Every structure is written in structure tokens, then in C-alpha cells.
């Protein structure tokens, strides 16, 4: 398998490019519009054919490259079934497999940060990694105070859907703000300060008291992302 | 093997933590002083014992955490034999193996960015990855205009020592400024704009005409790093 992680320093977003080393078909997860040229370069340099572009959820902090990638390369655009982004061509449901040339990702509905967030498990029969979007971060969790977010549902998604994956599953989030590039399910179970040793009620209280300002790009990013970054 | 890549956004430095999953002994490559707390947290969270801390070369753009890590955790500090940093306790020579609990890194003398730079090949008998410091970057190379740098020697190091590694060897540099986190030897042979299809003379000309300003931290970082970050 070919695997690349990219970092957008403006929004602290991680984007993932995965491809089959044999057939060279690729998919990308959570691409950022401003980084389009880099993805196109990597795809060309690595001699790949991008067939799918996934957004884990409607981002509020950056504009997606989904629409631009579809326009440039003709890939299928993928999001969860509850997204309001009408420009998306494939809407995945709980448990559905996204297959790219034998590379399999299983969609898990993991609301909480937004009400339409999905996570994606790589090689679900023996999980190797999970791309969690913003629901579970490294030593943190995604805020739950807008876009249909819910601390209760975040807890359920994390505890009942993500923490049941094997401890050694690598965690690849959509963001990190401290320079950490990956974690694992076991590590977050043991060391995530919002979750380890906490009850659901304690978690909900933590999330309700974050008092974060709105993301500076929110008013631009959400409408733009509902149009796959092309409005 | 346990593997973690960290990013220091101030200096765009990548730091690598490697450990044996069995014995839990670890080494770190190119740690940044300001990120010390993060490394200590990761080492503790992952239940590791840091036994060695390596600097690929005397950095001019950030202050090393080598001395602080030695003070905090009692690890051995490692650099190449030609470093002027007297605080270093283990000076490696060409071909020498740095062994941590069976995890083997081979030192390669790769001058060019500085006259004392080493690269380190992970699992040298069947190379998996190479940590190149600043001599070879992703789609770039380290500047050669100070600290005993030499475009000629940079070319020799890259072409005769790094490009002879298998194409599939993952390249982990000490820096990236565009959000790319890794590459491979084959990819750089084919797509590095300073090297692919270029002659030695063309490369030397490119490097001699970069006209870069000095790193803003140079006057602080170099003397500080000669004292392992503790002056």
C-alpha cells in the first residue's frame, strides 16, 4: 500500500492519500482546497489514479478540495449519508465498504462533532488504522457545540464505535495542533485527558464548558463545503 | 516497532521517536528543545525508556533537546564523529550501527549541508527508511552555503550514498516546509527538481545561486547546539 499524510499548516488539517501499490488506484481523505496543487503533484509523481475523494464531515475550519479534485481528475466524491452537501456523488451508510482496487475502508457513523460525521476503518477485517475526522483527536476530541454537534453522541461514537477497535489500530485524525501526527486507539483509551477514567457525565460537562470561539473561517467554510468547495 | 513523527511548526522540523515494541527501549532523532514536554509525555504515555538521542547534524534553525533529554532521562547523546559538540557522548563513524533493543540504525556520513552531517538507515540489511537530516529533503536539498557546507559533497552524499538505497526506502527528512511528511528514495530520484535529470555541475550551479538569507535563529542556535542546547 502507498500511504501519505499531508499537513495544512493554515488550518492544522491532516489529509491522507492511500493507494494500492499494484493497480495504482488511490483515494484521498479530507483534502484542503488551498493544497490542491500539492495533491495533484503527489498523485502525478507517484503515478496514481485518484478514484475517490472522501470528506469525513462538513468542515468549518477549511474549504474542501473535493469539488476541485472531481473536476480535475474525475474522481467520485464521498461523504456520509446525512451530509447536506448535494454535490457529493456517493453517500456511505454505516458499515459500508469503500473499495479502491482492493484497498478497503469501512464507514462508521460517528456523530458528535457534527451530526453527519463518519470515520473510516482501514482493512476492517483486521483493522490497521482509523481516520476519525474530528470526532476523536490525539489527546483531545472535536468540539460539539455547532453543526448538530452533541457531547452525548460524541461519547457514544468514541466509546462504542472507536474504542472497540483493537488497541493497536493507528489513529489518524483530521487535525492536530501540537505537532503530533498519529496515535493509537489504545493510547487514547489510556491517555486522552477528556476520556481516560472519565464517565459520560464528566465528559459532557467538559465539552459543555470549553467556551471556544467560532472557527474564524466558519461562515465561509461551511457554505463553501456544502458545495464541495466550489461556490 | 513503535514509530512516531512529530512536527515543530516554528522551525518546520520533523522529529522521530522509534522504539522496540517488546523491550520498550527508544531513540529519538533531531528533537527540538521547545518541544521537550511533548517528547517526555509521549515517552511516558507509550511506556518507553529513552536510551539514545541523535542529532543528524548541528542545526542552525532550532535548538536541540539533546542535552535536556540526557538530563531528564539519562539517555546517551549521539552525533557523527566530526561534530564539534563536545557534550555528545557517542560519536558514530561511517557504517557504525546504533542499536536500541534490536532496532538497528546504520550511520552514513553524508556531508554537504554541513561538513559533519550523518544520515541513519533503519534496518540496514533490508532498508526500510532513512533519516536524512537536511542533506536530502522532499523535492529539495539542504542549503550548502554555511557550516562547512559544499554543493559538491552534497551531490556525492545524495547520489553515492542515499540514492544507492532501494527505491522503496522511505525518506524521513528533518524538515519540510510544504506539509509533506515523507517521501521515498525512488521518488526523489525521479522527481526531485534539483537532482532528477541533472548533472553534478548543474546541481552545483543551482545550489550556488540560491541566495538564501541566513536562518533567523542561526546566531543563537549554532552555539547553543554545540552545547547540546544547554547554554
Give a quick precis of the structure.
The structure is a homodimer of 231-residue chains. With 231 residues, chain A is α/β, with parallel strands linked by helices.
Description:
The structure is a homodimer of 231-residue chains. With 231 residues, the first copy, chain A, is an alpha/beta fold. Chain A has a single domain, classed as 4-Layer Sandwich (Metallo-beta-lactamase, Chain A). The first copy, chain A, has six helices and 14 strands. In chain A, the strands form three sheets. In chain A, strands 1-2-3-4-5-6 form a six-stranded mixed β-sheet. In chain A, strands 7-8-9-10-13-14 form a six-stranded mixed β-sheet. In chain A, strands 11-12 form a two-stranded antiparallel ribbon. The radius of gyration of chain A is 16 Å and the shape is globular. The mean pLDDT of chain A is 96. Chains A and B meet through strand 1, helix 1 and helix 4 of A and strand 1, helix 1 and helix 4 of B.
Number of strands of chain A: 14
pLDDT averaged residue by residue of chain A: 96
Order of helices and strands of chain A: EEEHEHEEEEEEEEHEEHHH
Specify the CATH architecture of chain A.
4-Layer Sandwich
Shape of chain A: globular
- Using only CA atoms, what is the Rg of chain A? 16 Å
Distance between the termini of chain A: 34 Å
CATH class of chain A: Alpha Beta
Largest interface: A-B, 19 and 19 residues
CATH H level of chain A: which superfamily?
A: Ribonuclease Z/Hydroxyacylglutathione hydrolase-like
Number of helices of chain A: 6
Tally of domains of chain A? 1
Amino acid at each position: 500500500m502507498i500511504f501519505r499524510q499531508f499537513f495544512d499548516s493554515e488550518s492544522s488539517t491532516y489529509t491522507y492519500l492511500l493507494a494500492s501499490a499494484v493497480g495504482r488506484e488511490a483515494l484521498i481523505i479530507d483534502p484542503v482546497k488551498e493544497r490542491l496543487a500539492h495533491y495533484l503533484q503527489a498523485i502525478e509523481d507517484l503515478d496514481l489514479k485518484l478514484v475517490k475523494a472522501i470528506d469525513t464531515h462538513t468542515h468549518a475550519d477549511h474549504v474542501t478540495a473535493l469539488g476541485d479534485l472531481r473536476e480535475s481528475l474525475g474522481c467520485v466524491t464521498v461523504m456520509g449519508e446525512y451530509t447536506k452537501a448535494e454535490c457529493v456523488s456517493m453517500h456511505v451508510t454505516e458499515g459500508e465498504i469503500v473499495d479502491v482496487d482492493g484497498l478497503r475502508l469501512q464507514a462508521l457513523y460517528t456523530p458528535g462533532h457534527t451530526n453527519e460525521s463518519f470515520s473510516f476503518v482501514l482493512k476492517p477485517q483486521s483493522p490497521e488504522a482509523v481516520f476519525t475526522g474530528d470526532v476523536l483527536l490525539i489527546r483531545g476530541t472535536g468540539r460539539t457545540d455547532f453543526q448538530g454537534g452533541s457531547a452525548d453522541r460524541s461519547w457514544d461514537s468514541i466509546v462504542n464505535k472507536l474504542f472497540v477497535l483493537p488497541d493497536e489500530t493507528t489513529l489518524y485524525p483530521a487535525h492536530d495542533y501540537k505537532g503530533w501526527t498519529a496515535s493509537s486507539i489504545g493510547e487514547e483509551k489510556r491517555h486522552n485527558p477528556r476520556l481516560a477514567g472519565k464517565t459520560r457525565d464528566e465528559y459532557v460537562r467538559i465539552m459543555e464548558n470549553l467556551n471556544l470561539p467560532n472557527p474564524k473561517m466558519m461562515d465561509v467554510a461551511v457554505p463553501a463545503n456544502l458545495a464541495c468547495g466550489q461556490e
